[in-house]
C-alpha cells in the first residue's frame, strides 16, 4: 500500500476561501495555512474541527542508558508508564484540558510492569534494546514486529474515530536513538545535532555526542535500507511509533508531531513511505537541535515554540487548540463578499 497525496482540490478551495475571508489578506498568518492543510488532509472545505484527537505513547528502554547519555536512570521508564496509566503525567494534564485521549503501550520497557492493565503490554516486542553504538539495537525481525504493532494500533485508533492522531514517547535514553536516526537520515555528524535531552551537563553531552558518532560510524558502510536503519540505530518503541505514522498516512488520517522522538519517527516513516510527511503537521519546536533540523528537512514549520523538551506527545497536545482554531476560522468567518461595503 502506498500513500496518496492530500486532496489538492480541497486545498485549492480552502486557499480561495481563506483569501476571501472578511479579514485583511494574510492576516490569519500560519493559522490560515494550517486551515488549508487541514482541508487537504480531510478532503473537504471548510475542514471539520477535529474533536476526536487520540494520542498513543510508545514506551521502551534503551541499552545506551547504561553509558551515561541521560540525566535520569532507566527505572523512571516503568514508573512513568504507571503514571500515564493513572492519568497523572504532563501529557495527561494537557490531554484532559483539551479532550484528547491518551493510551500508553509498553513496547520495550525493561520491566515486567506486574499488575498493569494487560492492554498496555499487548504489543510488547522485547525488554529494552541493545546499545546501538556497539551493536544493532534490534534484529530486523523484531523491527518488523514493532512496525506491525504500530500499524495495528493506528488501525484501532482510527476505528475508534480518530480525526487527528498524535504519537508520544516514554523511555529514558530515547533522545539518543532519535538523534542517531535523524543524523543518519540527514547525513550530518552527531556534533551538529546532539542535544541535552533531560538536561545533561557538558561532560555527558560530549560523551553522548561521541556515542552517537560511534553508532553512525559503525553502520555507515552497510548500505542500510530504512527498516534496517531502524533496527541498527532505533529501538522497538521507535519502530512501533514509525509503523503507527506510516499507517496513519496510508489511511489518510492526519498526525500532529511532537518533539525529537516523534519527528525522528516521522523522518523514518517518510523514508519508508515517501509522501507520508504530507499528512503530518509539526505541533511544536523542541529544544533538541535534531528536531529542528529534521523538521526543516520534512518542510514542516512548528506551530508552537515554548521551549518545551518533555516528549510524551505533550508539545503536540498543547498545539491541539491551535489546530481546532484553524478549522474554526476557515469554517465560521464571513466572506468579504458578504459584507455591505
Ligand atoms: C520524569 C520524566 C518524565 C518524562 N517524560 C518524558 N520524558 C522524556 O525524557 C526522556 C528522554 O530524554 P533522555 O534521552 O535525556 O533520557 C524520555 O523518557 C522522554 O520520554 C521524561 C523524562 C523524565 C525523567
Ligand atoms: O524533544 C523532545 O520531545 C524531548 C526532549 C528531551 C527529552 N525528551 C523529549
UniProtKB/TrEMBL annotation:
<dbReference type="InterPro" id="IPR023195">
    <property type="entry name" value="Nict_dMeBzImd_PRibTrfase_N"/>
</dbReference>
<comment type="pathway">
    <text>Nucleoside biosynthesis; alpha-ribazole biosynthesis; alpha-ribazole from 5,6-dimethylbenzimidazole: step 1/2.</text>
</comment>
<dbReference type="GO" id="GO:0008939">
    <property type="term" value="F:nicotinate-nucleotide-dimethylbenzimidazole phosphoribosyltransferase activity"/>
</dbReference>
<dbReference type="InterPro" id="IPR036087">
    <property type="entry name" value="Nict_dMeBzImd_PRibTrfase_sf"/>
</dbReference>
<dbReference type="InterPro" id="IPR003200">
    <property type="entry name" value="Nict_dMeBzImd_PRibTrfase"/>
</dbReference>
<comment type="similarity">
    <text>Belongs to the CobT family.</text>
</comment>
<feature type="active site" description="Proton acceptor">
    <location>
        <position position="312"/>
    </location>
</feature>
<dbReference type="GO" id="GO:0009236">
    <property type="term" value="P:cobalamin biosynthetic process"/>
</dbReference>
<dbReference type="InterPro" id="IPR017846">
    <property type="entry name" value="Nict_dMeBzImd_PRibTrfase_bact"/>
</dbReference>
<keyword id="KW-0328">Glycosyltransferase</keyword>
<comment type="function">
    <text>Catalyzes the synthesis of alpha-ribazole-5'-phosphate from nicotinate mononucleotide (NAMN) and 5,6-dimethylbenzimidazole (DMB).</text>
</comment>
<keyword id="KW-0808">Transferase</keyword>
<dbReference type="Pfam" id="PF02277">
    <property type="entry name" value="DBI_PRT"/>
</dbReference>
<keyword id="KW-0169">Cobalamin biosynthesis</keyword>
<protein>
    <recommendedName>
        <fullName>Nicotinate-nucleotide--dimethylbenzimidazole phosphoribosyltransferase</fullName>
        <ecNumber>2.4.2.21</ecNumber>
    </recommendedName>
</protein>
Amino acid at each position: 500500500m502506498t500513500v496518496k497525496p492530500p486532496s489538492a482540490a480541497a486545498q485549492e478551495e480552502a486557499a480561495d476561501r481563506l483569501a476571501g475571508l472578511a479579514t485583511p489578506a494574510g492576516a490569519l498568518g500560519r493559522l490560515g495555512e494550517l486551515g488549508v492543510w487541514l482541508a487537504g488532509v480531510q478532503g473537504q472545505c471548510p475542514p471539520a474541527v477535529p474533536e476526536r484527537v487520540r494520542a498513543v505513547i510508545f514506551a521502551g528502554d534503551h541499552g545506551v542508558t547504561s553509558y551515561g547519555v541521560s540525566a535520569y536512570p532507566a527505572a523512571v521508564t516503568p514508573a512513568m508508564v504507571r503514571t500515564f496509566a493513572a492519568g497523572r503525567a504532563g501529557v495527561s494534564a494537557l490531554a484532559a484540558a483539551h479532550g484528547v485521549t491518551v493510551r500508553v503501550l509498553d513496547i520495550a520497557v525493561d520491566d515486567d510492569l506486574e499488575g498493569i492493565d494487560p492492554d498496555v503490554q499487548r504489543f510488547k516486542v522485547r525488554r529494552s534494546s541493545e546499545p546501538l553504538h556497539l551493536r544493532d539495537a534490534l534484529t530486523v525481525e523484531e523491527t518488523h514486529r514493532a512496525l506491525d504493532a504500530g500499524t495495528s494500533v493506528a488501525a484501532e485508533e482510527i476505528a475508534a474515530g480518530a480525526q487527528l492522531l498524535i504519537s508520544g514517547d516514554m523511555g529514558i535514553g530515547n533522545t539518543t536513538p532519535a538523534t542517531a536516526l535523524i543524523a543518519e537520515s540527514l547525513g550530518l555528524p552527531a556534533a551538529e545535532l546532539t542535544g541535552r535531552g533531560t538536561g545533561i551537563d557538558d561532560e555527558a553531552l560530549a560523551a553522548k555526542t561521541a556515542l552517537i558518532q560511534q553508532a553512525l560510524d559503525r553502520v555507515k558502510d552497510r548500505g542500510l535500507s530504512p527498516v534496517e536503519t531502524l533496527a541498527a540505530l532505533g529501538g522497538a518503541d521507535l519502530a512501533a511509533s514509525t509503523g503507527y505514522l506510516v499507517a496513519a498516512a496510508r489511511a489518510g488520517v492526519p498526525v500532529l508531531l511532537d518533539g525529537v522522538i516523534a519527528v525522528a519517527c516521522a523522518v523514518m516513516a517518510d523514508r519508508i513511505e515517501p509522501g507520508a510527511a504530507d499528512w503530518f503537521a509539526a505541533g511544536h519546536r523542541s529544544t533538541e537541535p535534531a528536531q529542528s533540523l529534521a523538521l526543516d528537512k520534512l518542510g514542516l514549520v512548528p506551530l508552537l515554540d515554548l521551549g518545551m523538551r518533555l516528549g510524551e506527545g505533550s508539545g503536540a497536545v498543547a498545539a491541539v487548540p491551535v489546530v481546532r482554531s484553524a478549522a474554526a476560522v476557515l469554517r465560521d468567518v464571513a466572506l468579504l463578499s458578504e459584507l455591505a461595503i
